Amino acid sequence: MKPHLLLFLCLFLSITSHAQSDLGSLKGRIVTFQHEAVAGASVTLQNTGFGTTTDAEGLFNLSSIPAGTYVLVVSNVGYTAYTQHIRIVAGKNPFLNLQLSESRQELKEVVVSTSRNAYQVLQSSTATRMDVPLLETPQSVQVVSSAILRDRQAFTLNEISSAFTGMKANNGNGSFQIRGFTAYSPNDASFLLYNGVRGNLFLWSQQPLLYNIESVELLRGPSGALFSEGSPGGVINFITKQPLAEKRASIDVSLGSWAFRRASVDFTGPLSRNQKLLYRAIIGYDRSKSFRDYQDKENLFIAPSLTYLFSDRTSLALELNYAHQKSVQQYDNGSYIYTRSDGTFDFNRYPNHLTIQSPTDYGRTDNASATLTFNHQFSNKLKLTLVERAVRNVLDYTDHIPLGRIRNDSISRAYQDWETDRFSLQTTAFVSYTAKTGAIGHQLMGGTDYNRYGWTQNDYQYKLSTRISIFHPDYSNSVPSASTPAEESDDNRRVTNLVGAYLQDQVSLGERLKVLLSLRYDSYNGKETPLSDRDNKQGDALQASGWIPRVGLVYLPLPQVSLYGTYVKSFNPQTSNNVRAGGPFPTRKATQYELGSKADLFNERISVTLSLYQINYANILTAAPTEENSHRQAAIDGTRSRGAEVSLAGHLKNLSLIAGYAFNDHVLISTSSYGKKGDRFANAPRHLANFWAKYTPSIPVLKGWGIAAGVRYVSDQVGLLSNQNFIFPAYTVFDAAVSYQKSRYSLQINAYNLTNRHYFTGSRSSTTTGGLGDPFNVRIGLGYQLW
User: Fold this and answer.
1) Which end of the chain has fewer CB within 10 Å, C or N?
2) Whole-angstrom distance, CA of residue 370 vs CA of residue 378
3) What tens digit of pLDDT does each residue of 222-257 get?
4) How far is residue 422's CA from residue 398's CA, in Å, rounded to a whole number?
5) Which of 145, 144, 151, 295 lies closest to 779, judged by CA?
6) Domain named TonB-dependent receptor-like beta-barrel: which ranges (predicted)?
7) pLDDT-derived band at 345, boundaries 50, 70, 90
8) 387/521 same-domain check
9) What mean pLDDT comes out for the span 501-516?
10) What kind and span of H or E run contains 684?
């Protein structure tokens, strides 16, 4: 997409969403959680002359308000003031239904119109850690709400990834493609965040579970200015469900193909009579087989949380998470791919159910985390946040992987045996301050991070195993004896200390022009220590530091249209700095340039984001063996990722929808042992498109019913950088759903891959196997609101 085309689209958006006048108004009603009217409440727009009080019915009306963004303040005797950003649009008269809690003194989320708006999210504080509307955020951010998770019956990040524009799951593990880059936990430890803080609960071999997740956010591009290292393509942020002041309880049960069964309960409410101590308890369990042989996976998830409200300005929250997984095969090693004699590939030769792994393989994972969050608001302008997070991941698994190519429908295999105990201790503290210098507004933020992470045990052995017939496998003697020498072996521990500090200022030059200035400094210091002579690496050290700047600009030609540009750099320390391999190596560095436009159209019912970007990524490690050192590596110039994206979400009358299209061209920029200049990067399709819509009839006889359908398209993609002829074919997948809700009951039926399309999602490290998409399958979900 050319820049002049972007400007044309921005002009088109501006024309189609012009204002009829320069003034707007605001009406609404304030009630308690018991739906009783709050009379005499003060309703004002902060730092303006606009204000009123609610009448006996809780109603209020503010008129002749200039278009722009304001801070809505609501207070009353017995309640404490609460602030909320709100946008006034010229010529519009929105009606706000607000609920005020008598105990928490907090308004629930502002709801405009009806719940049909649930697909659309207008605000997120993650990208800047400030309460700024997405329209005024100089970054491409997409939020998948709880309504979309529910309507798609998505229970893992892999299952909802296709709802994000320009993102896909590469396989059945924790590997994803974002803007052409592979995001994978061992290489990008912080690409998965929880409530905007580092500390991923799940290991790379797992699909992150969504039992306690309220919404999922995708922040596209390097985000190191706030979150330190991460994937150059973007980071994922999980927003967890928090304790509520209102007593609620629900139970959900799902059944599906391949003996899938899942059940969860969610309880929340006050624990004390004064309603200062709140709790939430979420428990989930699921178990399933697969269309592949010998697969059996079981998950237990427990997430209790407490919040204590010292006052309306001070709170302390504790959130615990425990996830236990037991499986026959921990890794998803995909399905077989046949190499023909002429070097081409047959992706349809072998049936779906075959697997390279043995029935004796197993995986056991125990993940636990504890997060303590302290918030204190010194005044309406100054706020402090302190977060402590501890994560522990314990993995014990054995596995079989392909060794060499398939010949005569048989394959040699290797055996892996791994036990590891990993940890992450994260401290994050930041303050935000709102100020004005003359006519210029400032939203200042400064913070520090300290992360101590690594592992206390890393016992890994790689041995040769038996060769098997693919169609008639014999798994006897597939587990090597303890006396068999290991081809590779690790036995070490590692500790890395990351210290970071950052400053940010979001400057408002009037109502239309915003400037974001950020600067971060990170310092890494790590050491890997052998625990025995079995360790092949015999030590690895990490010392790296650097500055990470970010500059963003937002201009609003109209209150509901913005143009933005951003420049950001980031760096990631190398995962290996072994001296035997030629280390230490320079850090991996990313630089992104992005231009875009955002608009809230059709009376703010549809939000649209357009973006153009280029990401330069340098110092990728590649094999560079010599006669003297066969283990030698070298850092190469790297890659360049260019692309364009358009995404939209919202509702039109009875139709809720989310859709997007992404173009990406990710290639090498120089020739080396890594590949030739211009070679396509692995698992990076040039075209991705997604669409999902739900229709809820308004006629009385069909009240409560809903019908939904969706499609996703992925163009062909290179499966292995070193073999540009290894190309996975393009695919299109159709899904559908029907739902019914009445009173406290809900029913959801989803059908996936309606045409039973056979397709591969991506590769790992060879041309022998690839990630295979799920064939046709069905899920039925039942929900009941206990109170």
Assistant:
1) C
2) 26
3) 887 778 777 889 999 999 999 988 899 999 999 999
4) 17
5) 151
6) 326-754
7) very high
8) yes
9) 93
10) none
* Domain count along the chain: 3
Residue at 5 is within a domain: no
Mean pLDDT of the chain: 86
- pLDDT at residue 21 in the model: 43
3-state secondary structure of 136: helix
Residues 371, 199 contacting (CB under 8 angstroms)? yes
* CA atoms of 331 and 333, how far apart (whole Å): 6
CATH assignment at residue 34? 2.60.40.1120
Phi, psi of 317 (to 5 degrees): -125, 140
Give the model confidence (pLDDT) of 578-610 as tens digits: 655 566 777 888 999 999 999 999 888 899 999
- Host H or E run for residue 159: helix 157-160
At 85 the pLDDT is 65
Query: Can you say whether residue 147 is alpha, beta or left, with left for phi > 0 and alpha for psi between -120 and 50 degrees?
Result: alpha
Residues 6+ apart with CB under 8 A from 517: 504, 505, 507, 550, 551, 552
Task: Indicate if 675 and 768 belong to the same structural domain.
Answer: yes
Average pLDDT over every residue of 597-625: 86
Domain identity same for 264 and 230: no
Count Cα atoms within 13 angstroms, Cβ side, for 48: 19
Closest CA to 124 of 607, 539, 652: 607
pLDDT at position 580 is: 58
Residue-level pLDDT at 103: 38
Q: What is the DSSP letter of 172?
A: S
349 plus 269 within the same structural domain: yes
Could you give the angle at the alpha carbon of 138 between the alpha carbons of 90 and 190, nearest 5°? 135
Q: Which of 84, 99, 114 represents a domain boundary (last residue)?
A: 99
Residue 648's contacts (CB-CB under 8 Å, 6 or more residues apart) are: 606, 607, 608, 609, 657, 658, 659, 660
Do 568 and 438 share a domain, yes or no?
Answer: yes
3-state secondary structure of 34: coil
In a domain? residue 6? no
3-state secondary structure of 469: strand
Question: Within this chain, do residues 85 and 138 fall inside the same structural domain, yes or no?
Answer: no
Q: Report DSSP state, residue 147.
A: H
Is 756 inside any structural domain? yes
Residue ending a domain, choose from 211, 240, 269: 240
- Residue showing tokens 């939203």: 443
Q: How many Å apart are CA 373 and CA 390, to the nearest integer?
A: 12
| 294 and 220 co-located in one domain | no
Residues 421-470 have pLDDT tens digits of 999 999 999 999 998 888 899 999 999 999 999 999 999 999 999 999 99
Q: Give yes or no for residue 707 having a pLDDT over 80.
A: yes
Say if strands 192-194 and 234-240 run parallel, antiparallel, or are unpaired. parallel
Q: What is the pLDDT of residues 8-46, one digit of tens each?
A: 444 444 444 443 345 778 888 887 645 567 887 888 887
Closest CA to 246 of 32, 539, 490: 32
Tell which residue, 305, 311, 222, 314, has the closest CA to residue 275. 311
464, 337: one domain: yes
CA distance 53 to 695: 38
pLDDT at 437: 85
Across the strands, what pairs with 181? 178
Only one residue has tokens 């018991």, namely: 34
Residue 441 lies in a domain: yes
Average pLDDT of the segment spanning 306-311: 94
Tokens representing 398?
Answer: 């054995």
CATH of residue 719:
2.40.170.20
Q: For 333, left (φ over 0), alpha (ψ -120 to 50), or beta?
A: alpha
Residue 42 lies in domain: 23-99
Give the CATH number, domain containing residue 185: 2.170.130.10
Please determine, for residue 91, whether its predicted confidence score (pLDDT) is greater than 70. no
